[in-house]
Amino acid sequence: MALDARRTAVLALHWQVNVIKPEGFFGGMLAGPVARSGVVERAVRFHDAVAALDVPVVFTRFTVPEGEGGLVRNTRFMQAVGEAQEAFRPDAPGAQVIPEMLGQAEAGHVADNQRLSGLAGGDLPVWLAERGIDTLLVTGVATNLTVEQTARHGTDLGFHVHPVSDCVAAAAEDVHAASLANLELATAGCLTADQALAGLA
């Protein structure tokens, strides 16, 4: 599958200490499965490779500013982070991009919001459209949460969305696989990192 690098961006979702690392808010649920999967190392290589092709890498962070910003406590997820919002302040240690990707985030673009979809509650869709981007390659954690929510949202906004199947992970392998199966039908289709890079090349 051919991909136009000039019209493509990577959405790197929730690669934050709170999600990925044992000391993070969701570390008890996600840090172990993420470490065992090797997804961080694969995603680091993928982000570096696409950036070398001048494809933008956009990191999204889930943060809760003073006053809660656009947070709406309408799901269990949002209720939980609302109760622990100090851990998600933009300058809190847990809200930071993980060290393995911090340089990539600093070289790319970072968008903060208070929604599960990285494309909701902010100006990121406009930012992408202004740059002529119509294709999104999605990496991140967790597959069944921000990845699936963002991929479906992006598709409804008219983007051609490809979850990068070996650069996403979830708390359980069966949940991960089921989410990717859903996204195979609900998006432009899942690609591996190698397939995406081959398409861009």
TrEMBL record:
Keywords: Hydrolase
GO molecular function list: hydrolase activity
Domain Isochorismatase-like: 8-195
Pfam families given in the database record: Isochorismatase
Residue stretches in coiled coil: none
Record carries keyword Hydrolase: yes
Protein name as it appears in the record: Isochorismatase-like domain-containing protein
Species: Planobispora rosea
